[in-house]
Amino acid sequence: MTEPNNPEHNGESSEDETPHLIVPAKTGVLHRLRNYFLTGIIITAPLGITIFIAWKFIGLIDSWVTPFIPATYNPETYLPFDLPGLGLLFSIVVLTLIGALTASFTGRILVRFGERLVARMPVIRAVYGALKQIFETVLAQSSKSFREVVLVEYPRRGIWAIAFVTGHTEGEVQNLTEDDLVNVFLPTTPNPTSGFLLFLPRRALVTLNMTVEEGIKLVISGGIVTPPDPRPQTLQDVPQITSREGEAAAERAQFDTPARAVGDT
User: Fold this and answer.
1) Distances (CA, A) of 105 to 1, 70, 140
2) Which of 93, 98, 128, 203 is most buried, by CB atoms within 10 Å?
3) How far apart are CA 6 and CA 13, in angstroms?
4) Is residue 166 part of a domain?
5) What is the pLDDT of residues 202-216, one digit of tens each?
6) What is the pLDDT of residues 142-172, one digit of tens each?
7) From the CB of residue 128, how many other CB atoms can be counted at a distance below 10 Å?
8) How many structural domains compose the chain?
9) What is the extent of the structural domain holding 166?
10) Is 210 part of any domain?
């Protein structure tokens, strides 16, 4: 009856308890080292990848443009080493001069002549027209595309998605509807370059205070990188979308009732 209390048994118990007491200390040290390592990756990886991509981009532009620079105006002709970014700088200067020339009367005539020439080429005119429209939309200073982040109920009521307003709906789409429609781009995660084009009434959108950059980060990260709410704490605690439930219920009743009547017949 007293065997469980013999010294050997007590010795075994002490041996079993010793590792149990040491493991948490080792686990704590390893856990801290792991956190330090991950923190180092989080800090250095984005910076390193950004520098690497920028360096490769500059090198790519230099390899394309530098051979077209006349030797007389190329500083590398007189230096024993290459100048990184020379081709990029030359490209910026040339594009600026082209823009200044296009703004003049003679430049506009040349542009119209070139566009008429391209318009006679069946395949090239389609590609050129699409690319021109995209660049004008994205780069034009007067454009308000992707200047507003909104919430939309998609793909059904009660499910909210991040979207970007790209402009006011015009043409046939707007003329066939009674509502004041807005062009909304609904991106996919984690690739925001693909998505869905929606034409929604302005009243169906919930405007957010976050910037376009913050909205894109939210989409790319899948919700991991969430921007803070800039509103005062008193407003953060009060839901702002509950007032839409009555309107949503009225709309459902308006559209669902005819559908049920048809089904019953």
Assistant:
1) 111, 29, 20
2) 128
3) 11
4) yes
5) 888 988 988 888 988
6) 445 677 899 999 888 888 999 999 888 888 9
7) 15
8) 1
9) 148-233
10) yes
What are the structure tokens assigned to 210, written together? 């976050």
| HSE-CB for 125 with a 13 A CA cutoff | 9
3-state SS assignment for residue 211: coil
| pLDDT reading at 8 higher than 60 | no
Q: How many CB atoms lie within 10 A of CB 161?
A: 19
Cα 118 from chain centroid?
Answer: 33
C-alpha 238/C-alpha 229 separation (Å) is 13
- The answer to whether 205 and 179 have CB atoms below 8 angstroms apart is no
Q: What is the DSSP letter of 177?
A: -
Task: For residue 232, give both structure tokens.
Answer: 């005062």
Q: What is the CATH number of the domain that holds 205?
A: 2.30.30
Is 203 within the bounds of a domain?
yes
pTM of the model: 0.49
Whether residue 93 lies inside any domain: the answer is no
Q: How confident is the model at residue 77 (pLDDT cuts 50, 70, 90)?
A: confident
The model's pLDDT over 47-73, given as tens digits with 9 standing for 90+, comes to 999 999 999 999 999 999 988 888 888
CB-CB neighbours of 176 under 10 Å: 8
Residue 148's φ and ψ, nearest 5 degrees, are -145, 130
Q: DSSP label at 202?
A: G
The total of other beta-carbon atoms located within 10 Å of residue 198's CB is: 17
